């Protein structure tokens, strides 16, 4: 019993200190954001490696998710004689949920893990220390541009995912299954509200971009400086990001779509 | 670089330094001075905290108590801005070189110049080539850090450390894991850098022979304290029992061969008892 | 990496993202309806609005001329008060226009259909539509049919 309490206290303290370190880190990164503009070349490089290089996987996944939605939606709706409503079903699912959430999960796997590994390796090989000793602040030089790149890329990627998904649904629903093209889009517009659905989805993806990038960079910096430590941190980034995204999605959905 | 007024004042002063890592006490009242313009070597067994000492001098770690002055400034009390200004006058050579892996050799040496100066590209190029020539790697400027051997990486790191013309260079284990030829090259480089640029060099190492070779001053540390300090001759002459063992590399002495613990016999007996259960 | 290449590819990426957002706004969602321009508001009271939602279309002869801007319950009249925002261009609706709640398709959502009357006076901002027809509620209809049967 005492052991259990001690264990509880210890892991509580562990989490508290982790959260504390992560918060201090976030504060310092945000305070260094002026470097994003001043060193815009570094920022461009990071947007390239975080955003542009995630584009392919996002477009391909968006297309397939949209096609599957079109197919499954059709099978369900046709039973009610409401196949015309397909456009609405596809668009709502994408814009509200699948766009932001699936993009965030893919982003965590593709870009987040890479960020963690890169920064973990920089720490392990003392590159971060070396920068500090050369009077170069790693927060400005390394973390701030990466954080901004993740934060900016996520909503753009999510929007691309949803747009491509809508087209995927169109290809399957209209092209293959014969839903009327006019109804596909008019039904879509009838049920998808700009502010309540599209803007809410964008807000979700902004929050996800913030949190996933934060987790990824912090895990890299907090990694134990060994190869095992880096691999553990990389895994942790993906797991923690996925949990954070799904948990936050639940909360945000509750707040926004009542 | 050093005018006469400050020529005799020590470059680094460490006074009563106490530093802990968790429960482990790394330094327990360590005091030493590093004279200006000389090569000072800090020697001690692995794990005594030599790297830690360099980090404390560079202001990356803060002492739990005691004080460290560099160039008359107390490191732990400096604001970030002043600390960074101090670090620009201080080069550090990390054990592994710590080159930035996303740039080639040229860009690594150019890095401090680009970060801290607004020099035109032309001038940066000349400076970088000059520093690379000094370490004999001008022709390797397009290689990436992954393509360099350990010795080459350390030489590039040295070129980078002297890029901003510092007053002092800190070397962390510059000889570790090098073949004899490369070791000789590095020894020559350190000596030459020191004499031609007139800077203060602080070496941290456990390689006794090379260190004694190039040092003016030697500080032996172990168990968080200074065991012996002085010029090479002084230390050789008046070495304590501990220092003798360390300098001669004898396996047993005041520092026991065995990690402290129960006697071997007791351990074996216990194994038999539990085996009989 | 060349700065030029970076700038161009990152620029294209950001443009693509913004284009996707535009696509979601214009092609996928109803942002067009947010741009009705100037509107004037009239109210109508219904006994029952069925499943009518705010922002549902308001049509005449099937052509959309505005949307439902607000739905509230009026505790004094024991009726639902529906506010309609109608485009300023459509200012010729007779005062005795009737408003009915219809359903589009079997599963479709509900909308308001206006049927112009013959009055020379026209509806203006703040006026009330006096003639209304509530939404058809399936249970009520079945109940009425059953009553008719039993009274026969
Ligand atoms: N980041 C750290 N966390 C905890 N202990 C550390 C850390 N770095 C070093 N130590 C401990 O501090 C002591 C001194 O380490 P170090 O300065 O690297 O020794 P040296 O360079 O002399 O081999 C060692 O016992 C090591 O275990
Ligand atoms: Mg060391």
Key structural traits:
heterotrimer; A: 258 residues; mainly alpha; 10 helices; 87% helix; elongated; B: 277 residues; alpha/beta; six-stranded mixed β-sheet; four-stranded antiparallel β-sheet; 11 helices; 10 strands; 40% helix; globular; disordered N terminus; binds adenosine-5'-diphosphate; binds magnesium ion
Describe this entry's structure for a reader.
The complex is a heterotrimer of chains A (258), B (277) and C (152). Chain A has 258 residues and is mostly helical. Chain A is built from ten helices and no strands. In chain A, helix 4 (55-78) runs parallel beside helix 7 (138-176), helix 5 (86-124) runs antiparallel to helix 10 and helix 9 packs antiparallel against helix 10 (227-256). The radius of gyration of chain A is 21 Å and the shape is elongated. The mean pLDDT of chain A is 92. In chain B, helix 4 (105-116) packs parallel to helix 6. Chain B is globular. Chain B starts with a helix and ends with a helix. Chain C folds into two domains: 2-31; 37-137. In chain C, strands 7-1-4-3-2-6-5-8 form an eight-stranded mixed sheet, with no helix packed on it. In chain C, strand 2 (57-60) and strand 3 (63-74) form a beta hairpin. Magnesium ion is lined by residues 50-51, 95, 172-173 of chain B.
Helical percentage of chain A: over 70%
Strand content of chain A: under 5%
Structural class of chain A: mainly alpha
Total count of domains of chain A: 1
Rough shape of chain A? elongated
Report the end-to-end length of chain A measured between terminal Cα atoms. 43 Å
Provide a count of the helices of chain C.
2
Q: Provide the helix percentage of chain C.
A: 25-40%
Structural class of chain C: alpha/beta
Q: What's a quick, concise take on this entry?
A:
Chain A is mainly alpha-helical and 258 residues long.
Task: Provide the fold topology.
The complex is a heterotrimer of chains A (258), B (277) and C (152).
Chain A (H helix, E strand, L loop, with lengths): L1 H30 L2 H5 L1 H11 L4 H24 L7 H39 L2 H7 L4 H39 L4 H11 L2 H29 L4 H30 L2
Helix pairs in contact in A: 3-7, 4-5, 4-7, 5-7, 5-8, 5-9, 5-10, 7-9, 9-10
Chain B lengths: L3 H4 L4 E10 L2 E11 L4 E5 L6 H8 L7 E6 L2 E2 L5 H9 L1 E4 L11 H12 L4 H14 L15 H12 L6 E5 L7 H18 L2 E6 L2 H7 L2 E6 L2 E7 H6 L3 H8 L15 H13 L1
Helix pairs in contact in B: 4-5, 4-6, 5-6, 6-7
Chain C lengths: L2 H26 L10 E8 L10 E4 L2 E12 L4 E9 L10 E6 L6 E6 L12 E2 L1 E3 L4 H14 L1
Parallel strand pairs in C: 1-7, 2-6, 5-8
Antiparallel strand pairs in C: 1-4, 2-3, 3-4, 5-6
The structure holds adenosine-5'-diphosphate (ADP) and magnesium ion.
Magnesium ion (MG) binds next to helix 2 of chain B.
